[in-house]
Structures are given as C-alpha cells and as structure tokens.
Write a structure and sequence with these properties.
This protein has about 350 residues and is of the alpha/beta class. The chain has 9 helices and 14 strands. Helix 1 packs across helix 6 and helix 7 runs parallel beside helix 9. The structure holds 4'-deoxy-4'-aminopyridoxal-5'-phosphate (PMP).
Amino acid sequence: MKHNFYAGPSIIDESVLKSAGSLVRKTDEYLSILEISHRSKRFGELMEETLFLAKSVLRLSDEFDVIYLHGGGRQQFYQIPFNLSGLFKTSYYIDSGSWAMQAYQEALHFGKAEILASSKGNGYRSLPSFEMMEDSSYYYMVTNNTIFGTQFNNISKLNAPLVGDMSSDLFSREIEFNLFDLFFSATQKNAGTAGGCLVYIKRGLLKKDIGSIPKMIDYRTHINKKSLYNTPPVFSVLMTNLTLKWIVQQGGVSHLEKRNKEKASLLYGEIDRNAVFTGYAEKEHRSDMNVVFNGLSNELEERFISYAEKSGIVGIHGHWSIGGFRASLYNALPIDSVKVLIDVMQEFERTQA
Ligand code: PMP
C-alpha cells in the first residue's frame, strides 16, 4: 500500500477515482462523459452542479459568482491584474513565498504593483506583517504557502479589495471568505485534479471600466456564459464535481478541518520530539496542509527518503527550491498514513541515525 504525500497533483480518495472510472467508461446505452458536447444537457448539468457545490460547501452568500476556468493557478497571476488593476493605482502584494512573488512579477505587466511586505529575509519561515496603504487597487495574499509550509490564520478587513490564492487550502479549512473580494484555487490539491481553477468573485468588483481586454481573459465573459464560453476541461470538471460530493459525504469542510488539524498536530508533534528532524516554519505560522521539515544533513535526508519508500511512503521530498521534506496532508490523506510516517520516523531515529 502507498501513502501518498505529494503536494500536487495529489491524493484523491479511492471512491472518487472509482466513480470517475465508471463515468468515463461507455456502455451500449451511455456515452462517456468525455465524448459528449459541452453544450449537451448532460454536461451542462454537470457544470451547473459543480458550480453550485463549489459555493454551497463553503456556505457562501449569494454575493459571490463562481466560475470554472482553464489554466490552473498561474493563469490567475495575470488574469487578476488584467481585470482589477486601476490605471493609476498600485496593487500591493504580500510576499510570503514564491507563489506570491511570481504573481507579483506577472502583475508588473499591467499597471503598477509593489511588494507591501516580505518574509524573504528569513527564508519565508514566517509570514510578514503589513500595514495598509492609502490608495490601492487591491491587496494580494497566498493564504497557504505550499512550498514553505506557512498559513495565514487571522485575516483582517482591509481598505481595498483583497485577493487570495487559496490553491492549497481551499476546502481544507474554514476561512473568512467574506473578507475577500476575489479568491481562487487551482484544482489539483483538494478540488479534484489538475487543469482547472475555481475563481470566486464578489459581485460589484468588476463594475469599473477596465477598458478593452481580450474576451477570454475577461471574467465577465465566463460569468455571463456560466463557465461554458469555450470548451471547458471536461475531465477536470468531472473530478471537481465528484470531489465536492465526497467533501459533502465526509461531513463538509468543518469536519475535514478537524481531521486535518489532528493529522498536522500528530506530525508536528513528532518532528518536534524527534532528534533527527526539525520543522522549517516558525511554530505560530505552521500550515496544516504542507508540513515542511529538514533532517540533520543532506546525506541523512536522502537516506530517509529511500528508507521511508520501503514502507510505501511517497512524495515527501521538499520542493526543489528548498530541499528537505514536505508532507502534504490534503483532505483525502487518511490519518493512518500520517501514523505510518510517524512510525517510520521513530524507527529511523532508533536504528539508522
Ligand atoms: N499557487 C499556489 C499556492 C500553488 O501551490 C500552486 C501550485 N502548486 C500554484 C499557485 C500554481 O498552480 P498551477 O501549477 O496550477 O499553475
């Protein structure tokens, strides 16, 4: 048996994969969902249900529109400034890691953008604190930093629209969504598989005249066409649909949040106890989704990866930019996988270090 700690694409519950299998297959009477027109009633209903679920599992008010787009997370790095940048105002980015930094670099193509605060100086082990600016077109933050394993917990109301990249924590915990004016998540972590992106936009945000922009990039096109403007990534939509139904069956986001906290606290507990490993992020900023840690030396880290593989543990190597380990504890990861990892860490400390 494999214990899948990959950061994304990442673990999908067995029951979701089984349902996808049967919907992808065709019979004498039924075509596969992948080989019918996206204009058909059957696919239209699938999209409509997916968008409904994407909003209802978050218990969002009707203030938000939700759309399903192509292009994963990174497409939003330029689509956001394209749609929201005022010509004379500056947008402010909170630099809590490389996903925020890359989004900022894309924003520089469209109007003015600045880094409001950064924790680069300490290797992004903590979250930067920041002050509000007088005149801003929007603020931008990444609520969970997939690479460095930090997560924002206390988000406060700001004096301009707040944009959130929630690619690695949407559906894993309750967040004060109403404080955001736009938030999005790529779909390959807790929302299905790769290829898509869910974007939530508060009504009224797009009102101002942003001039002439390409139709495909204009959020209003996709809102008006109910995410069927061009041919959507049908397989990704199917996977998101089934994953959202699975979230409902599990008792919803609040129930998953409890489970995720339990998994994270078990693993951090072991990292803090074990003499061979140290946590990367500062304790008060630790993420429940991506647990980042190091071994005593590079040599020991390499040995641990091979050692853990013998017990079926896969995907724990850290992001290539920082090395070490990263155990991603997304919704579908069973607590038993975390327990196996902890057993292996203890055994390694006893016998191999
Ligand atoms: N933002 C965050 C927080 C991410 O973790 C990722 C991918 N891991 C991205 C953006 C980029 O997503 P994609 O690869 O789908 O473009």
